[in-house]
Amino acid sequence: MSESKDTYFTVNEEYRAEISVKSSRFIATCTPISSRESALERLTRIRAEFYDATHNCYAYRLGLSGLDFRFSDDGEPNSTAGKPILFMLQKYEVSDVLLIVTRYYGGTKLGVGGLSRAYADAAENVLKLCSKKPVYKTNQVRVMCMYEDISVVKTLIDTYAVSHEADYRDIIEIYCEIPCSLLDEFCHAVTQKTHARAGTFIEQNQ
Which residues of the chain carry a pLDDT beneath 70? Predict the structure, then answer.
């Protein structure tokens, strides 16, 4: 499939890493999410797991541009926790991700600068462990073609589609997910390459 501006990256599963700074423990949990609701559900679960922690600070980003985001210092001095965590999500260019850094206070104050570095370092440590996977903003397209055109159509689908399913009957029906920015180009290519024998029908927007 071609690279397109409709592609962004998330993490493929939940990861965890821990650092210690002047006896304070910072436990970073990075987990994939699909919505604000799923972010809050995961956050509730982590808070319950670390119910005795001093702080559970976090940031999340959602969507293609990552402009749907939120962060929290959870009682730490203003901008010393949530913003550094969010910055790391932006640095590693991941979205649909919630990153929580749990702190167990060790008795020594770190100061504003030290605290920001500790949260940033904890977030970066877990992000270094994460494997990324692509997320695509797509339209579903139904392609109908004759057997004589299937070779050409399959070549185009391999070039443009994120995924597809085919139903071979008298006429072949193929349902494929096409990146939004490539939709017009794909439909035009199918028409042109098959001399209008194959048809494309946009099923839905996502």
Answer: 1-4, 204-206
CA dist 172 and 156 (Å) reads 15
CATH number of 172's domain:
3.30.70.240
What per-residue confidence (pLDDT) applies to 65?
A: 85
CA 205 to chain CA mean position, Å:
19
Give the residue ranges of DSSP H helices in 92-149. Answer: 111-129
Position 204 scores a pLDDT of 60
Contact at 8 Å (CB) between 179 and 163? no
The span from the CA of 83 to the CA of 4, in Å, is 29
Extended beta strands in the chain, E state = 7-11, 15-21, 24-32, 55-62, 68-72, 97-104, 132-136, 138-145, 163-168, 172-179, 199-205
Cα–Cα distance list, 16 to 47, 57, 130, 194, 202 (Å): 14, 14, 9, 51, 41
Shared domain for 109 and 23, answered yes or no, is yes
Residue 194, classed as helix, strand or coil, is coil
How big is the chain, counted in residues? 206
Is there a domain that residue 1 lies in? no
Distance between CA atoms of residues 60 and 32, nearest Å: 10
Count CB neighbours of 17 within 10 A: 20
**What is the C-alpha to C-alpha distance for residues 102 and 99, in angstroms, rounded to an integer?**
10
